[in-house]
Amino acid sequence: DIATFGATVTQVRHMVSFGISLVLFCTGSYQYEVRGGGDGGITPTSVNIFSTTRHSVDHSCPPIFMGGRLFFLSKEDPSRLYEYFFLDTSNSNTAVDISLHVQGWLPNTPKELRSIGTQNMVLATFGDDPSTIYVHYCVLMANEKIQAAWCKWKFGVATDSNGNETLVDSIKSFNTFDSVVYILTKRGSSYYLDKMLIGDESNDSGLSFATKLDRRFTVTGTYNSNTKITSWTLPFLDASINKVILGSAFGSKAGFERVVTNTTVGGVTVLTCVGQFTAGSCWIGRSYIVTGK
Fold first, then answer.
1. What Å distances lie between residue 156 and 84, 187, 236, 285, CA to CA?
2. What is the pLDDT of residue 155?
3. What does DSSP assign to residue 78?
4. Which of 50, 141, 175, 232 is deepest in the core (most CB within 10 A)?
């Protein structure tokens, strides 16, 4: 057995591999590193423990490792995101607050922390903002950070004419695999597994661009010659679906948007549009707003 040292008793809550050492996240705002002797591995006879940093950590949200760095959220009001890394100038490890320039912007109850290494993204959800994923991303050059920014992805929030928001979707959990974000979402009384492909700018088949829609999928419409109306029946209920983009089978009209009416009645959601648009499948989804500060 090996014990941590200090003036207070601490309990190890999380242990994360970091280079040739293990970083221990303990109660009492203590962080330690467990290392072997010299540059060797950790063995029963060579193990050593060193105090490294002291930061408040929210232990309900485990730290994550990405690109030779550790990231963890603090137990503060408001929350802060720290980056733990090796500092060449002092030949030691340190942790810096990478949310300092957006201080007060993050909510107070960290829930889950994930990463997308290929995009240098750290993603977090918070219990007091259940419809949103907060994202920190950066640009690295020769392993040096030259640019960093924050954004947030807000899902399933309806906004009325006065700008008041009503929660539609609630994120229950999420995870990442390669460049895909998988999101377990509750809508009404049902649960859905959504996915987001991050960083893929390839065009859709037959189009000169990629369609950007939430809840995007393809479906082929049916035409009623009596009413002169094309209908697209959705495989799920969603009164917020409001876009139809014509697919590659529509030739010169491919990529054009159709004005549709959403009717959700009797457990079925149907989109309708005047005219015949049954040459092939169409992209269906809901529009979203992008804003910047």
1. 33, 8, 15, 12
2. 84
3. S
4. 232
